[in-house]
């Protein structure tokens, strides 16, 4: 049983519910960010991140910097491309628009390759786009939080390496790292960016990246200064290398309490094989998607291969809007998210299923949420088709 005060279970696509030990780590007493105990903790966090991303390449470098997942976009735009460069953004929802906007803020020319809502750009179309002009990087949202669409990374990376080998492969993994498999080395990725508050199961406030040696070489060869000060790898790269080597270092003050919470969460994640964690998320996802179908409802991502394992975006029945059901769900004790995709926001809701709500079956979060969803729909007159 959790020792946390009673509260409605948070089942949105992040932030997610936290394990008690993770929250307790946040109450760590104040300490210097350059003290040996803290530096040792930070070093262990960076080493564990290598295991989570499945990389053993010593030229790759993990980063953990105070900020949200959005800071990862800024660091990519500020360090890996220069004003006037071309970037190809694969569009599966709201967050592709935002990443493209971020790139353009830094003077980069962002070309979006779109797909219908609930779909993802097809590899043939990606290949055609890559052959039309040289792109410094390609970005893809592994799981778009607005649609629940899962992108297939391995085949995409193989295509990019074959057709446009100089193009860096950047993965927005904010809603995927910790619930979807990512093989950084084997898939030949250059950047995977994420945040602490989703499947990693830590409070919000940390921007996390894994960066390849090839990407670092690209950064070091740039002709102009990085276009951000706080996000500049000129400032952060030596800090991360020093912390991992257990050497005190300073550029900007980290959050010791969040680092302790991340240390606890990563220790829990890595206490068993990653394959078992991913299998748990697949099983929970299948249970939810089967229940959604049984309720006569449809997902934004209608094809199984496009469906994420850590969240489900669900179309509501005709004539029913998110405000008709979300308040009822809160009263029953679960919190879902409303729609985010601007074209259809009033037509769907989002169910997040990541972290302890999935891996700790004794909590019963998933089963209760499915039951409450059926009840809430019934209260507004919806009848499940027989």
From TrEMBL:
Q: What is its EC number?
A: 2.6.1.44
Key words of the record = Aminotransferase, Pyridoxal phosphate, Transferase
Location of N6-(pyridoxal phosphate)lysine modifications: 198
- For this entry, list what GO says about its biological process: glycine biosynthetic process, by transamination of glyoxylate
Please list the cofactors this protein needs.
pyridoxal 5'-phosphate
Which GO cellular component does the record give, naming just one? Answer: peroxisome
Q: Which residues bind substrate?
A: 350
Statement: the UniProt record of this protein carries the keyword Transferase = yes
Ranges of residues in domain Aminotransferase class V: 50-341
Output this protein's name. alanine--glyoxylate transaminase
Q: Which organism is it from?
A: Amniculicola lignicola CBS 123094
Query: What does the record give as the organism's lineage?
Result: Eukaryota, Fungi, Dikarya, Ascomycota, Pezizomycotina
């Amino acid at each position: 049983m959790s020792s946390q005060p009673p509260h409605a279970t948070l089942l949105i696509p992040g932030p997610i519910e936290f394990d008690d030990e993770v929250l307790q780590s946040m109450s760590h007493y104040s300490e210097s960010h350059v003290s040996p105990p803290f530096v040792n903790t930070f070093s262990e966090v960076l080493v564990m991140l290598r295991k989570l991303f499945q990389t053993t390449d010593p030229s790759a470098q993990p980063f953990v910097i105070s900020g949200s997942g959005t800071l990862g976009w800024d660091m990519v735009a500020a360090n890996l491309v220069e004003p006037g460069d071309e970037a190809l953004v694969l569009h599966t929802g709201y967050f592709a628009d935002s990443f493209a906007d971020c790139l353009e803020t830094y003077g980069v020319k962002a070309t979006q390759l779109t797909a219908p809502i609930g779909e993802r750009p097809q590899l043939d179309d990606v290949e055609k786009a890559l052959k039309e002009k040289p792109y410094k990087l390609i970005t893809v949202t592994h799981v778009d939080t607005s649609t629940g669409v899962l992108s297939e990374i391995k085949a995409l990376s193989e295509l990019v390496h074959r057709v446009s080998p100089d193009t860096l492969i950047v993965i927005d993994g904010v809603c995927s790292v910790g619930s979807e498999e990512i093989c950084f080395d084997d898939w030949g990725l250059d950047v995977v960016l994420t945040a602490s508050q989703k499947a990693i199961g830590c409070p919000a406030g940390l921007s996390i990246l894994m960066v390849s040696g090839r990407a670092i070489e690209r950064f070091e060869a740039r002709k102009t200064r990085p276009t951000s000060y706080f996000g500049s790898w000129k400032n952060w790269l030596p800090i991360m290398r020093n912390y991992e080597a257990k050497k005190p270092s300073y550029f900007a003050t980290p959050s010791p309490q969040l680092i302790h919470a991340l240390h606890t969460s990563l220790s829990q994640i890595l206490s068993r094989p990653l394959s078992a964690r991913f299998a748990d998320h697949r099983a929970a996802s299948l249970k939810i998607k089967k229940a959604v179908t049984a309720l006569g409802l449809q997902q934004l991502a209608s094809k199984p291969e496009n469906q994420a394992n850590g969240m489900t975006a669900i179309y509501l029945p005709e004539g029913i809007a998110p405000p008709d059901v979300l308040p009822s769900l809160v009263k029953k004790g679960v919190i879902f998210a409303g729609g985010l995709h601007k074209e259809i926001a009033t037509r769907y809701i989002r169910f997040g299923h990541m972290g302890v709500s999935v891996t700790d079956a004794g909590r019963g979060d998933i089963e209760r949420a499915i039951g409450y969803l059926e009840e809430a729909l019934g209260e507004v007159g919806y009848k499940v088709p027989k």
